[in-house]
Structures are given as structure tokens and as C-alpha cells.
């Protein structure tokens, strides 16, 4: 992901940046409500979105109610030709304040850039699974813990090398860059237990 205005974003990144579901982003793309491009000489045909398309998606929730697709398409087309704080279409009958969506999008972009800077992927570390820089702690594992309502304080206690910022940004990275395929098998999964212990249960007093 580049930081300039000509940066391109995948639908998954766009969903995180605009706080839309991935399904909503793909629906907007399929209906040609937002422009997309394919990265030149890419090995796949992933549809990519520029920053103007992200702003259009950021407006999607605000325009869904009462804005039929053709009018929404005209709004998004006008975005590409305007840098004003307030967008006016339909001869001034429709006015949209762009300041708050632009601020929210800028904050999301900063968070994603920061999350990326905290993470590395090295084939020699956990088979290339993304880990926090300077550690062997998988980012997606921390995001899963948070998703299961594990308190951040407990995670910090278990992994003292993490910082509150790393924990806060783990879900941002994990959602923007989900792991492909099945979860990696742990080396102990197929091994038999080292020993079995039988112990009597204490007598219960009623």
C-alpha cells in the first residue's frame, strides 16, 4: 500500500478503511458504483480502488437510504472531479458535506499504515506468518484473543514484549490481511500425550 494519492487498495483493505463489510464493498464494485482498476502486470485480476473510490465507499452508508443507484453513481462521479468540502449536485438540490468522511478516512489510513509498520513476515519465523516486529508473536493470534473478548491487560501480561498500540492495531491488520487457507498445524497436534495420570476426584459434600 503506497501513501500517495495514487495508492491502490484491495477490496479487503477498503472494507477495513471504510468500516463497510467486504460484501458491501464487492456489491458496490459489481454495480459499478465505484471505479476500479487492475494492477498492471499483476499475476491475478484483483480489482483495486484508489483513494477517491474509498471516499465514495465511505459515503455509501450515508447514501444507501433514499439514494437510488443512479443518483449515488452521479455523486461518486462528481467526487472524482471535485476537491471541495461540500459536494453539490442536481443543480444544488443535493449537498453533501465531505469533511467528516475525509477526516474518518484519513484516520483509518493512518491506523492501517501504522499497523503495517509494526508487522513483519519472515519465512524463517513461524513459516512466514505475520508477527509483530522484534517478536515471534503472531498478529492474527492476538486479534483472535481480542475477538474472543480477552482483556488487553491479560494479553499484555502474557506477552510483555507487546505494547498497547500493537494490541490495539492487531485487529486492523488481521482484518485487512486475513490468513490464506487453513490455520497452520501446530507441531504437537498429532503427537500422543507424554503420559496419562489418573487421580480420584475429591468427595463432594452436599
CATH class of the largest domain: Mainly Alpha
Net shape: elongated
Give the topology string: H per helix, E per strand: HHEEHHHEEHEEHHH
- What is the count of structural domains? 2
Tell me the distance between the termini: 64 Å
State the low-pLDDT regions, or none.
185-190
Determine Rg (CA atoms, Å).
23 Å
Annotation field: number of helices: 9
Proportion of beta-strand residues? 5-15%
Largest sheet: 2 strands, antiparallel
CATH-scheme architecture of the largest domain: Orthogonal Bundle
Sequence-ordered SSE layout with sheet pairings:
Elements lengths: L10 H8 L3 H9 L6 E2 L8 E2 L2 H8 L1 H5 L4 H12 L5 E4 L4 E4 L1 H19 L1 E2 L10 E2 L6 H9 L4 H7 L5 H13 L30
Helix pairs in contact: 1-2, 3-5, 6-9, 7-9
Amino acid at each position: 500500500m503506497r501513501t500517495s494519492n495514487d495508492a491502490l487498495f484491495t477490496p479487503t483493505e477498503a472494507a477495513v478503511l471504510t468500516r463497510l463489510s467486504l460484501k458491501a464493498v464487492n456489491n458496490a464494485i459489481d454495480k459499478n458504483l465505484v471505479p476500479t482498476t487492475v494492477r498492471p502486470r499483476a499475476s491475478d485480476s484483483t480489482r483495486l480502488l484508489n483513494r477517491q473510490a474509498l471516499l465514495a465507499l465511505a459515503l455509501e452508508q450515508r447514501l444507501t437510504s433514499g439514494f437510488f443507484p443512479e443518483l449515488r453513481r452521479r455523486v461518486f462521479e462528481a467526487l472524482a472531479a471535485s476537491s471541495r468540502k461540500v459536494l453539490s449536485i442536481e443543480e444544488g438540490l443535493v449537498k453533501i458535506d465531505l469533511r467528516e468522511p475525509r477526516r474518518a478516512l484519513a484516520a483509518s489510513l493512518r491506523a492501517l499504515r501504522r499497523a503495517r509498520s509494526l508487522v513483519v513476515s519472515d519465512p524463517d519465523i513461524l513459516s512466514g506468518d505475520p508477527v509483530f516486529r522484534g517478536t515471534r508473536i503472531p498478529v492474527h493470534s492476538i486479534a483472535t484473543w481480542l475477538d474472543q473478548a480477552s482483556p488487553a491487560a491479560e494479553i499484555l501480561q502474557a506477552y510483555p514484549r507487546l505494547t498497547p498500540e500493537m494490541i490495539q492495531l492487531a485487529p486492523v491488520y488481521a482484518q485487512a490481511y486475513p490468513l490464506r487457507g487453513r490455520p497452520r498445524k501446530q507441531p504437537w497436534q498429532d503427537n500422543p500425550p507424554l503420559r496419562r495420570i489418573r487421580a480420584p476426584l475429591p468427595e463432594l459434600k452436599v
